[in-house]
Amino acid sequence: GENVEQHPSTLSVQEGDSAVIKCTYSDSASNYFPWYKQELGKGPQLIIDIRSNVGEKKDQRIAVTLNKTAKHFSLHITETQPEDSAVYFCAASNNDMRFGAGTRLTVKP
Amino acid sequence: DAGITQSPRHKVTETGTPVTLRCHQTENHRYMYWYRQDPGHGLRLIHYSYGVKDTDKGEVSDGYSVSRSKTEDFLLTLESATSSQTSVYFCAIGAPQETQYFGPGTRLLVL
Predict the structure, then answer these.
(1) Mutate which of A2, A42, A51, A99 to test chain B, going by most B C-beta atoms within 10 A?
(2) Cα angle, residue A23 at apex, residues A22 and A28 outer, rounded to 5°
(3) Are the beta carbons of B102 and A31 separated by less than 8 Å?
């Protein structure tokens, strides 16, 4: 089955800096790659997703890139703000959705 | 939380007792999922349902059973709770290879 590795497990940046979180997957048949943000005490919420026929997708300060050959995808957050502090999860889906272990992002004011 | 509620939100129970968690959705979605979330493991699929009375096992199904008698309700039962089942449990809805929407979670402590 699919295996998703996520790095780093923790990330601390200064407000205004960029943050990058990277994930690798094992199943070449996976074709849907969402990213979720989870705030304390809440369920994960989708922030951006990408499909295997697209290499990059942007939504304001958030972008995701996908390299199908290397089987890795990344989340980029620019101009970070304190409210970006949360745990971020990547996932890869063929039929089952498998999640990475999560990255705790802290944005220092 | 996309019209998904979970009950209870918090529960403390003792080893060996049965526990049932409820997920209720108002989206009339065919697919529903139960995940557990543990530090260092992300979210792992326990069971899922693809319709009324249609369910299948996920990655970590041992010790858990599910039932779906109505479209809107998906129940997760821990047949005999163990300390290793202390976790946060999330329900989700969404088709395969599509966005999944999560409920607010149930925090379970097994003593």
Answers:
(1) A99
(2) 140
(3) no
Measured in degrees and rounded to the nearest 5, phi and psi for residue A84 equal -80, -10
Question: pLDDT of chain B along its 111 residues, tens only?
Answer: 569 999 999 999 999 999 999 999 999 999 999 999 998 888 999 999 999 999 999 999 999 999 999 999 999 999 999 999 999 999 999 988 889 999 999 999 999
A82 phi and psi, to 5 degrees?
A: -55, -35
- CB contacts, 8 Å: B97 with chain A: 31-32, 93-95
Please judge whether A97 and B104 are an interchain contact, meaning their C-beta atoms are less than 8 angstroms apart.
Answer: no
Given an 8 Å threshold on Cβ–Cβ distance, is B104 in contact with A89?
A: no
What 8-state DSSP symbol labels residue A84? G
Yes or no, beta carbons of A99 and B42 under 8 Å apart: yes
By C-alpha distance, which of B110, B43, B13, B28 is closest to B74? B28
Chain A interface, mutation test: which of B10, B35, B43, most A Cβ atoms within 10 Å? B43
Q: What's the longest Cα–Cα distance across chain A?
A: 41
